[in-house]
Design brief:
Blueprint (H helix, E strand, L loop, with lengths): L1 E3 L6 H12 L2 E2 L3 E2 L14 E2 L2 H9 L3 E7 L2 E6 H10 L3 E4 L2 H10 L5 E5 L3 H10 L5 H21 L4 E4 L3 H12 L6 H5 L1
């Protein structure tokens, strides 16, 4: 299951609660960016060097990857395949570009786009983080607008959730997760 949306829409908060409440697995992305305060290697991200990430690309070890604001982000493929083989639900919290790449390889997966209640609210959330200078916030905001349009155009995101109430958004994701997908009943029979 892929959860995407622009920076500041609450993907991480939603993902953390869905994981806590359901016991689903989480695909820990690899990145070349530095950890933010409180982030733990192997739990929040796999923090790797640029050289190691480029090696992962060359060796086809990633389901998807992207260069986002000068840092690489990507989903290691092996844990995803293991979850699929064992019939477990794995959440992938990735950007829209990565979601489109996963859709090309795994079109039968579930894709959820998390949206802000408004673009003004999104700007407020980005600024409220207090982790980035104004010029980075401006870039993230401009990128958010492009991502929303790209998500709508790529055709992968059959579910869209407006995160105007965190608890409701969490419940909506869990409900989608619990909705049988085509072929799921036959596989379990």
């Amino acid at each position: 299951m892929v959860i995407s949306g622009p920076s500041g829409v609450g993907k991480s908060c939603i993902r953390q609660e869905v994981l806590r409440r359901t016991g689903a697995l989480w695909s820990v992305s690899a990145t070349t960016r530095s950890p933010r305060p409180g982030e733990v290697d192997g739990k929040d991200y796999r923090f790797v060097t640029r050289e190691r990430f480029e090696q992962m690309i060359a060796q086809d070890e990633l389901l998807e990857w992207a260069d986002v604001f000068g840092n690489y982000y990507g989903t290691p493929i092996e844990p995803v395949w293991q979850a699929i083989k064992s019939g477990q639900t794995m959440l992938m919290e990735i950007d829209v570009q990565g979601g489109a790449q996963v859709y090309a390889k795994l079109p039968g997966e579930t894709f959820i786009l998390i949206l802000p209640p408004s673009m003004d609210e999104l700007r407020r959330r980005l600024a409220g983080r207090g982790t980035e200078p104004p010029e980075v916030i401006d870039r993230r905001f401009a990128k958010a607008q492009q991502e929303i349009l790209a998500a709508q155009a790529c055709g992968a995101y059959t579910y869209r959730i407006v995160n105007d109430d965190l608890e409701r958004a969490i419940q909506q994701v869990i409900a989608i997760m619990n909705t049988p997908r085509p072929g799921q009943a036959a596989a379990g029979a």
